[in-house]
Amino acid sequence: MQRLALFDLDHTLVNLDEAFGVWAVEFADKRELAHQAVAWLLDLNAEGYPHREVFFGRVRERFGLVELWRRYRRRMPHLARCPSAVINGLALLWDAGWKVGVVTNWTPDNQLGNLQRTGLAAAVNAYALAGIEGVRKPDVRLFEIAAQRCGTTLAGGGWMVGDHPIADISGGHAASLHTVWIDRGTWPGQEHEADQVVTDVLQATQVIQQHHT
Ligand SMILES: [Mg+2]
Predict the structure, then answer these.
(1) How many angstroms does the Cα of residue 44 sit away from the middle of ligand 1?
(2) Please, where are the H alpha helices in the chain?
């Protein structure tokens, strides 16, 4: 199997919960909302409204504010961080001859900003962004685009690492890749089918290296 490693971005390479926490405090401060507003926002986020449009629908109802989602998309890339340990983990893969790519479904105005500001754009060989390519995970075509940009094809196999059981794991399998699932929980009726399960992305880089030594 060739040394190709593809990674999801949100909640995999980038810790969005941390960025969200900072954003929630800023949001409440700027609008002079009562302190409970922050707890309410964090709870709503933890309840798992994965689609921000739905999330901001609820925020709008609660606070009577408009145009929030657009501002949120503009602000979040400034708050998102990729830990230096993760950047180093990717550098170790590079040193060991791996081709490293990012495959993400984020909205287009977020995707590039996040990759560039976190330093990830320079830490990988290539990326395939759903918002730009017009095709989303779990569609195999997005994985194929990432592989091609890494100078290869999916025919040689490889690995997909991500936290979403369908977009990343089912998608990765459909793309003939081995999969590593970052366990952030499943939901009723949706179990993961990953080859390997880890708790964070650094562990994932170690697991895939072990399979090639
Ligand atoms: Mg994710």
Answers:
(1) 18
(2) 16-30, 36-46, 52-63, 68-79, 84-95, 108-117, 120-123, 130-133, 140-149, 171-174, 201-210
No. of helices (H) and no. of strands (E), the chain: 11, 6
Q: Are 141 and 156 in contact (CB under 8 A)?
A: no
What is the number of other CB atoms lying within 10 angstroms of the CB of residue 110?
21
Full residue range of the structural domain in which residue 43 is found:
16-79
| Same domain (yes/no): 164, 63 | no
Q: What is the Å distance from ligand 1's center to 162 Cα? A: 6
Could you tell me if 21 and 11 lie in one domain? no
**Are the CB atoms for 99 and 3 separated by under 8 Å?**
yes
Describe the strand order of the beta sheet including 126-129 as a list of residue ranges. 126-129, 99-104, 4-7, 159-162, 178-182, 196-198
Q: What is the CATH classification number for the domain harbouring 149?
A: 3.40.50.1000
pLDDT at 53: 82
Ligand 1 mean position, distance from CA 138 (Å): 12
The 10s digit of each residue's pLDDT in 127-176 is 999 989 999 999 999 999 999 999 999 999 999 999 999 999 999 999 99
Q: Whole-model pTM? A: 0.89
Domain count of the fold of the chain: 2
Q: For residue 151, give the DSSP letter.
A: T
